[in-house]
Write a structure and sequence with these properties.
alpha+beta, Arc Repressor Mutant, subunit A, Muramoyl-pentapeptide Carboxypeptidase, domain 2, 2 domains, four-stranded antiparallel beta sheet, three-stranded antiparallel beta sheet, 7 strands, 14% strand
C-alpha cells in the first residue's frame, strides 16, 4: 500500500556527502580552482580532496584542465563544474526544508524546545550507530569514528592529530540554524552524544561550542574518556 520508496541512480548514490560538498563549491565559483585551493577551504588534506575532484571529473560532473603555465614544471590541474551538467547537490541540502519545518514546530509547541531538540538528535545519533553496527571501542578509535561520521554527514571537520579538538567548518543545516540556533545546535549535540553512547563513551565528554570560531563551530572530545561498556 502507498508509494514505493524513492531510489537513487547509481551515480547519485556514489556521490557521497564529501563529494557533493566539493561539487557544490565548484558550482558556486566563477573560475577553476586547484585541489590545494579546495583543501584550504575545507581544512582537509589535499590528497583526500584530489580524490573527490578526480571522481567528479571522471563522472562528468566537473571539468579538469591544465592551469596556465607559470615557470618551470608541468602546470597543475584546475577544476570547474561542468556547465553542461548542472546537477544539483543531492545530499547536502536534501533535508533543509524538513528540518526547518520540524524546528519551527518544536519552537511553537514544546515547553522545553532545547530538551526536545537534544532528544531528537540523540535518537538520530543512535540510528546512525545502528545502521553502521557501531560497538564499544577505545577512546582514540571512538573519536576517529565520530569525526568520520560527521564528515559523511556534511560537517567538513578539521581535527587535530588526536581528534580531541575538531572544527566543524560546514553546517548541513546552516540556513535553519540561523533562524533556530538553539534547536538545531541542540540536535547536533544530541547527534554526537548518541554516537558516543553507541561507542561506549560518556556523552558528557563532548563539548560543542556553536559559532565559536571564525568559520567554524568547535567540538572538544575528551581524550581521557577511555572506558567502554561491556
Amino acid at each position: 500500500m502507498g508509494p514505493a520508496p524513492a531510489r537513487r541512480s547509481d551515480r547519485a548514490a556514489a556521490l557521497t556527502r564529501p563529494r557533493a560538498r566539493v561539487l557544490e563549491l565548484l558550482q558556486q565559483l566563477d573560475s577553476p580552482v586547484s585541489a590545494e585551493d579546495v583543501a584550504r577551504r575545507f581544512g582537509q588534506h589535499v590528497n583526500t580532496v584530489r580524490l573527490h575532484l578526480d571522481y567528479l571529473a571522471q563522472t562528468g560532473l566537473a571539468v579538469r584542465e591544465r592551469a596556465p603555465g607559470a615557470g618551470r614544471g608541468r602546470p597543475s590541474w584546475h577544476y570547474r563544474a561542468n556547465p553542461d551538467r548542472p546537477e544539483p547537490d543531492p545530499r547536502v541540502r536534501e533535508y533543509s526544508a524538513l528540518a526547518g519545518a520540524l524546528a519551527a514546530h518544536i519552537v511553537r509547541t514544546s515547553l522545553l524546545p532545547t530538551d526536545d531538540a537534544h532528544a531528537a538528535g540523540l535518537e538520530w545519533g543512535r540510528q546512525e550507530a545502528r545502521e553502521r553496527g557501531l560497538r564499544g571501542t577505545s577512546g582514540a578509535d571512538a573519536r576517529r569514528t565520530v569525526v568520520s561520521i560527521l564528515d559523511e554527514l556534511g560537517f567538513a571537520p578539521a581535527a587535530n592529530q588526536r581528534q580531541t579538538t575538531v572544527h566543524l567548518t560546514n553546517c548541513p543545516l546552516l540556513d535553519v540554524a540561523a533562524h533556530y540556533p538553539d534547536v538545531i545546535c541542540q540536535v547536533h549535540r544530541g547527534l554526537i552524544a548518541g554516537l558516543l553512547e553507541a561507542l561506549g563513551k560518556d556523552p558528557e565528554g563532548a563539548d560543542l561550542r556553536p559559532f565559536s570560531d571564525p568559520g567554524s563551530c568547535r567540538l572538544h572530545l575528551d581524550a581521557s574518556n577511555a572506558s567502554t561498556r561491556s
